[in-house]
């Protein structure tokens, strides 16, 4: 009997047999065993087949990109205000329909492509046994990763059998219903563990976008964290357990009982990544850091010494402190293309610098100031996100405290103060609310009056003097703010993250590697999962390869292994002991740490859903600066009065916790059920 390997039930049979003219995909070969043997006994064709399996990670499966692809990158932290504003409004108000921006069929195409590869790679004797094992492990990884992307977006999905399906069977017999959330996670976990056994710890320079052992274990940790989170692990007394998320037979697909052990498993999985060996008896991954410097160059200010906290400030980086690093440049360089993938010790998985047409390069073009950088001013930051960043000393920012302590008439940096460098990162005329914030703030936020380096402008003819210029977001014709028409920053706050000092749309934008999974996230997973364990609870959990056993409990010293590394690289003090000791306080701090550290990395949208915080956070109105105010003595202070942004409405309903399944998929698979709140028919 001929088989379809991992046939996507959500794709019409007529579409399955369509041959792709220039790609080695399964649609072209699955009917002919001889053809498959021809493919998998040829080295070049085999490699091309695997490359095609990877190709579906682009498009709507990108995790960090511009709005046209990764609209979920725009949660309550950053927004899109460009020419496609209607699309953004539709997204933010939940008024889109069941046909909206699907990655379902593309993911299952990738799953099918990888599955056929796994079934046939062993017949290719032109690869060594070790090479075949690596290639199979890559296919196993990418197949499980597609399932992960589906689970995170749609919730529980059908898990298709490895042995394949009989494509000659009746249409009704080909229908498969959804597996439960826990079953999906168990499958992803088991597949990632199998992949990890044969994936290498490191890749050659020309294979940086291929998964490593660390990538498999990190993806496993992320999936286990989601399984442990409130969306699928409701605490006792939880009112809404998504009991109406059911399969074709009416079985609930979401966990209905709380299980603390899930948190312990997630913590152990994160530790597996943390413990991976590196060179010279070190660890495979660490947070990138750059040494401090007293030398200022265009686009690269001299290091501003981090806060003297009596802890991190008394130790060098190698001793566990931040006294000899530049936190600002350390964080900025991770994202802006300054580092090649092989130079970045915290990049665990990435699609690399080639993410298709709608890549981070295109995103940065839309972040660029219109006048100085020939950009769009289309992507901005909400005032909620801007205010979330800590102060220089690690305390929380409070606008009212600023207004109470900084008197009228002294709220803008004077010329004398600007020339003297009284307020690091701030030049003349900048609102002092932006003074003395943490280093990640200045690496991420484009506030009114901040300096855009735009160093490559110097290589142009007409704009060679537009280098290291202050951007102006006040109302006016000759500004990058509102001028009565066109694209502008609707919050009066832009985004500097991902921007390299050389970047300018008048010359070029440096390529950037997508930060799909970073080591900082793994550290935060570890701390979050440990915090959720009850005092006195302890679990013995084997490491991923069984070589050791972890004793997992709510150990503050272990929680610090996650938090302290992130905080010291960021140049801010550690949490206080009382904050570590109080589970609820720590949870709140942890959520804020993820909001800041992972800003604009495609995490916030899904974090709010797994925590079940979306109904509160995404229902809040969007506020920004009063962009109608000009740079006059009478109006410039009013610019900083928060106002609701009418053009950026937001709303949340319960159905928005999970993406809808398209009507076409539901028609093709009679056993496929819709997500709660969405419809079945056109």
From TrEMBL:
Domain RagB/SusD positions: 369-678
At the top level of its lineage, which domain of life is listed? Bacteria
Task: List locations, semicolon-separated.
Answer: Cell outer membrane
Instruction: Kindly give the Pfam families that the UniProt entry links to this protein.
Output: SusD-like_3, SusD_RagB
Domain SusD-like N-terminal positions: 88-223
Where does the signal sequence lie?
Answer: 1-21
Major location (coarse): membrane
Keywords of the record, alphabetical order, are: Cell outer membrane, Membrane, Signal
Q: Which InterPro entries match?
A: SusD-like_N (IPR033985), SusD_RagB_dom (IPR012944), TPR-like_helical_dom_sf (IPR011990)
Task: List the GO terms this entry assigns under cellular component, sorted alphabetically.
Answer: cell outer membrane
Q: What family is this protein classified in?
A: Belongs to the SusD family.
This protein is called: RagB/SusD family nutrient uptake outer membrane protein
Write down the species: Bacteroides xylanisolvens
Lineage, top ranks: Bacteria, Pseudomonadati, Bacteroidota, Bacteroidia, Bacteroidales
């Amino acid at each position: 009997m001929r088989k379809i390997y991992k046939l996507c039930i959500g794709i019409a049979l007529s579409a399955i047999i369509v041959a792709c003219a220039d790609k080695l995909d399964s649609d072209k070969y699955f009917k002919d065993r001889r053809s498959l043997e021809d493919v998998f006994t040829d080295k070049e064709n085999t490699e091309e087949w695997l490359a095609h399996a990877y190709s579906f990670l682009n498009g709507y499966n990108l995790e960090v990109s511009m709005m046209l692809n990764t609209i979920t990158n725009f949660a309550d932290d950053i927004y899109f205000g460009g020419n496609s504003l209607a699309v953004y409004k539709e997204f933010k108000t939940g008024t889109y329909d069941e046909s909206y921006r699907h990655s379902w069929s593309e993911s299952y195409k990738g799953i099918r492509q990888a599955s056929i590869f796994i079934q046939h790679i062993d017949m290719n004797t032109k690869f060594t046994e070790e090479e075949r094992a690596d290639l199979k492990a890559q296919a196993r990884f990418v197949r499980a990763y597609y399932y992960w992307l589906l689970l995170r977006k749609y919730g529980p999905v059908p898990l298709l059998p490895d042995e394949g399906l009989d494509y000659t069977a009746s249409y009704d017999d080909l229908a498969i219903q959804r597996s439960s959330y826990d079953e999906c996670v168990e499958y992803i976990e088991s597949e990632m563990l199998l992949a990890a056994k044969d994936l290498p710890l490191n890749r050659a320079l020309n294979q940086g976008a291929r998964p490593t052992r660390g990538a498999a274990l990190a993806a496993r940790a992320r999936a286990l964290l989601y399984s442990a989170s409130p969306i699928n692990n409701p605490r006792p007394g939880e009112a809404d357990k998504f009991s109406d998320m059911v399969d074709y037979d009416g079985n609930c697909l979401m966990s209905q009982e709380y299980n603390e052990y899930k948190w312990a498993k997630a913590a152990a999985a994160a530790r597996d990544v943390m413990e991976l060996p590196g060179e010279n008896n070190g660890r495979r991954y660490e947070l990138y850091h750059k040494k401090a410097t007293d030398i200022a160059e265009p686009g690269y200010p001299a290091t501003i010494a981090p806060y003297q906290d009596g802890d991190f400030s008394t130790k060098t980086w190698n001793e566990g402190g931040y006294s000899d690093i530049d936190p600002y440049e350390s964080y900025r360089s991770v994202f802006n293309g300054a580092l090649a993938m092989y130079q970045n010790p915290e990049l665990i998985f990435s699609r690399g610098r080639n993410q298709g047409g709608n890549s981070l390069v295109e995103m940065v073009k839309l972040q660029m100031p219109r006048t100085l950088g020939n950009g769009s001013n289309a992507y901005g930051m909400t005032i909620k996100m801007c205010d979330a960043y800590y102060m220089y000393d690690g305390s929380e920012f409070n606008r009212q405290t600023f207004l109470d302590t900084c008197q009228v008439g002294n709220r803008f940096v004077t010329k004398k103060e600007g020339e003297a460098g009284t307020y690091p990162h701030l030049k003349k005329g900048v609102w002092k609310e932006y003074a003395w914030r943490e280093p990640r703030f200045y690496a991420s936020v484009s506030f009114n009056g901040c300096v855009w380096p735009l160093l490559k402008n110097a290589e142009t003819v007409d704009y060679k003097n537009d280098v290291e210029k202050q951007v102006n977001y006040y109302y006016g014709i000759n500004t990058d703010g509102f001028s009565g028409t066109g694209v502008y920053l609707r919050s009066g706050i832009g985004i500097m993250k991902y921007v390299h000092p050389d970047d300018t749309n008048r010359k070029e934008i440096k390529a950037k590697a997508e930060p799909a999974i970073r080591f900082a996230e793994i550290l935060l997973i570890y701390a979050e999962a440990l915090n959720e364990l009850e005092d006195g609870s302890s679990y013995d959990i084997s490491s991923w390869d069984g070589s050791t056993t972890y004793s997992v409990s709510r150990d503050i010293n272990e929680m610090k292994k996650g938090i302290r590394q992130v905080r010291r690289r960021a140049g801010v003090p550690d949490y206080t002991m009382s904050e570590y000791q109080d589970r609820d306080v720590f949870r709140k701090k942890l959520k804020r740490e993820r909001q800041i550290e992972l800003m604009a990395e495609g995490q916030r949208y899904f974090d709010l859903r797994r925590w079940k915080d979306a109904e509160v956070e995404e229902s809040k109105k969007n506020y920004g600066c009063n962009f109608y105010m000009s740079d006059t003595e009478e109006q410039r202070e009013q610019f900083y009065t928060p106002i609701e942004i009418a053009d950026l409405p937001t709303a949340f309903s319960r159905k928005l916790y999970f993406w809808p399944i398209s009507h076409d998929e539901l028609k093709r698979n009679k056993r496929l059920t819709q997500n709660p709140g969405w419809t079945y028919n056109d």
